[in-house]
Each structure stands twice: as C-alpha cells, then as structure tokens.
C-alpha cells in the first residue's frame, strides 16, 4: 500500500470514529446505515488485500477469464431484472439503455468491457428509486465484481514478475471506492449534526506524505445577536515573531495548521462589525485550540 493510500485509510477510519460518537442519531438514518455497511465491507477487503500482498499469487489468463465471466454474469443478472421492471413502467429510454446484448461487452477489449459494465451498473444505481426489484446490496455486488475483474486486468501482463500480487493492484481501487462512500457519510453527518463539522473535517483531512495534517487553531466568527456565521473576517495571529493572516470562510471558520507551539494573540476586523482582540491562545502539538468569537455590528 502506498503512503497516500495508507493516509486515506486512516482518514476514513477517523471519520467512522467520529460517526460512532453520534450513533444514537445516525442509527435512525437509513442512508447512513447503507453507507456504513458499504464502508465496513470495503475496509475488510482492503485489509485482506494488504495480507495478500505478501503472497506470490500470480494472476494468469485463467484467473482473468474467471473474473471476467463473473463480472459479466453479475451485471447481466441484474440488468435483465431491471429491464423487465423498466418495461413494466413503460420507461422506454431506460429499458433501451439496459437491453444491450451481453455479447457486445464480450467481444470488445477488456478495458472497455469493464467500462461498459460500470456504465450499466451506474444506470441501474441512478434509477434505483424506480427499479424497486433491485437493492443497494445488488449495486454493491456489481461494484465488487467490477473491482475484482479490474484487479486482475491491471496486473502487468496478467503476471507478477516482480512478485506484485492481486492484492497490490486491488488496493487503490478499494481505497478510492471507500473514500467516495466516506464522503457521502460526511454529507449525512453534517446534515443531521452540523455541530460535528469541525471534528469531521479535522479527523478526515489528509496531509502530505508526512502524515495526517493537524489543525492548530479553529476560530468561528458569528454575529452576537443572531448567531449567523460571518464570512470574510480578517483574522491576524501573532506570537511576537511570526504573523499569520487569513479570512473566514462562508461558514465563518478560520483554520490554521502547523503553527508554532506557544501563546498567540488574535486581532480581527470586518467592514460591518466592530474589530476586536483575543489574547493568549495557547497552541500545543497535535491539539486543536477552538475559539468562538461573537461580533457586534458597527453602530449606524
């Protein structure tokens, strides 16, 4: 596993830990439970692929054929079911998109086969609301079949001359898929529990190859009377030697990473609010200082 993929897996796990802290609420959200199950399955498969990475498991043409047939048969099974439902609903365009003869996928090159299989899966996934004879589990089964075929397909010449294994080739695909579903979980979490925004963004933020990047300080600017968040507040931090200036986001946040340890002073200003100062903000290694600032409007 590459360093980047390892960092992504760590961030995904961190995000799941944040969700666990709010499980009493999230457990009542069906969309979250679906995404949670998908992520857990992918994380197990990533761990399995990592273990397989130590084995000399050379994919041969026979293995590729088996994986190819499994992918085609899986897509075809659900495509046929979906096309029947589309016909019953008189959804002519959808039925037409789903009734391509499976031989059209078999006779073209392997890479295009996987792409066409992915397209058919996406058509079914997009129309899952009306294709009531399909489920999210069926979509996941198709996604897994495509991932397995691509894992073999991307093995150089279907052999691992340098002891590269099926697991090695599969990991990037699995991590990418897990990251996609983790992002969906983030949307759900922030929709139902907006106060978890900072914790989620901090836990799931990926840094450079040196590791996960920690936020040193997070300041939230809001109007004193209404509590509305304020964007474009100019925030200037100084510790007597160093000076950092940033502007608040549309959600009213200013976040700064990798600040020097010690005591910092903050001054802030905005065109329509009174300026102010917050002194002695203590910055510690691998810990985030959180500051709430309530601004008063400039009198008319």
Q: What does the model show?
A:
There is one protein chain. This protein has 300 residues and is α+β, with helices and mostly antiparallel strands. It has 10 helices and 7 strands. The protein has helices at residues 3-20, 23-26, 30-52, 61-88, 92-98, 103-106, 110-126, 136-153, 166-192, 197-204, and strands spanning 215-223, 234-238, 243-247, 253-257, 262-270, 273-283, 289-295. A hairpin with a 2-residue loop joins strand 5 and strand 6.
Give structural attributes.
alpha+beta; elongated; four-stranded antiparallel β-sheet; three-stranded mixed β-sheet; 300 residues; 51% helix
Rg over alpha carbons:
25 Å
Instruction: Please mark out the parts with pLDDT under 50 across 5 or more consecutive residues, or reply none.
Output: 159-168, 208-213
Largest sheet data: 4 strands, antiparallel
Helical content band: 40-55%
Number of H/I helices: 10
Find the structural class using helix and strand composition: alpha+beta
What is the chain-wise order of helices and strands? Answer: HHHHHHHHHHEEEEEEE
Q: Give the N-terminus to C-terminus distance in angstroms.
A: 60 Å
Oligomer: single chain
Shape: elongated
Strand content: 15-25%
- Which sequence of strands runs across the widest sheet? 3-2-5-6
Number of strands: 7
Mean pLDDT across residues: 83
